[in-house]
Each structure stands twice: as structure tokens, then as C-alpha cells.
Amino acid sequence: MSKQNYSSKEIYLDKLKNYCAYQERCQYEVIQKMKELKIDYEWQDDILLRLISEKFVDEERFARAIVRGKFRINNWGKNKIRNFLFQKNIVNNLIEMALVEINEEEYKEKITFLIDKKRAELANLDDHIQYMKLTNYMLQKGYEANYIQDSLER
């Protein structure tokens, strides 16, 4: 391998280190970025392995960060978070491990909070329509039907 190729590879590696340092990334996102940068296919595995070995990419850390952020900031439920991580090619056991980050009591409180907030917006509607709209809203947020039902009955 010539000196020029090596330096180009190092430049790409540095670019990707910066990309990963900016926010948590998963392997899928890094691979997409390498395709976008049109990095030689032969270099991609080596670059990805370097990023993993140097802890720039860590699937478990990524999954845990996504769970915390999407739940606390975006108010997403477990189903929506699970689907998001699945789309990023995170394996099921890692997804389930990361979802443990969500405290069960905090989860139920969040459901009650969101329902109460939305109910105030729908106050002028009759009970049946309000119930349906609240249920649909919470399902779209990714919360489980049994939790929604329990919270609506209270």
C-alpha cells in the first residue's frame, strides 16, 4: 500500500472519529457515513474495527443513550424506541438490555402526565371521542396498550 493511500485512509478515519465524537453513533450510521463519503470498500471494515477498538463506536452505549434520550426528551414509549433501534440494526438482546434504563414508575408517571396534558387539549370533545384520540396519541408515541388503558381508566 502506498504512502498516499495510507494518509487518505487516516484522513477518513479522523473524519469518522469526529463524526462519532459529536454524538453517539452505531455501526449502521458509521457504515452509511462511509458510503456517503465514498470510502474505498476495502478500507471500510478496517476503519470500523478501529473505531470500535478505540471506543468511538459502542452499540450498547449507543442503545442506552438512545433509550434515555428518546424517553426523557422526546417522550417516546418503549415500542417506538424499540422500533427506532431495530431500524439502526441493533440486536434484540441489546435493545432489551437498554430498555432497562427506563424506570417502571417513571414510565407510568410519564404516561399519566402525557395523557393529562393531551386531555386538557381535548376537553371540549365528548368522552368517547376523547378516549379514542388519547389512545391513538399514546399508541403513536409508542406506549403499550395495557399501560394506556390502565392510565385512562384512572
Summarize the structure in words:
The chain has nine helices and no strands. It is elongated, with a radius of gyration of 21 Å. It has 154 residues and is mainly α.
Rg, please?
Answer: 21 Å
How do the SSEs run, as a string of H and E? Answer: HHHHHHHHH
CATH class of the largest domain: Mainly Alpha
CATH topology of the largest domain: the name is: Arc Repressor Mutant, subunit A
Average pLDDT for all residues: 92
End-to-end span in angstroms?
69 Å
**Oligomeric state as shown:** single chain
Q: How many domains, in number, for the residues? A: 3
By DSSP (H or I, 4+ residues per run), the number of helices equals 9
> How many distinct beta strands?
0
For the report, how would you describe the main beta sheet?
Answer: none
Give the amount of beta strand, in percent: under 5%
Structural class: mainly alpha
Secondary structure layout plus pairing:
Elements: H1 3-22, H2 27-36, H3 41-53, H4 59-72, H5 78-87, H6 92-99, H7 104-121, H8 127-140, H9 145-153
Helix pairs in contact: 1-3, 4-6, 5-6, 7-8, 7-9, 8-9
Which properties best describe this structure?
about 150 residues; mainly alpha; Arc Repressor Mutant, subunit A; 9 helices; elongated
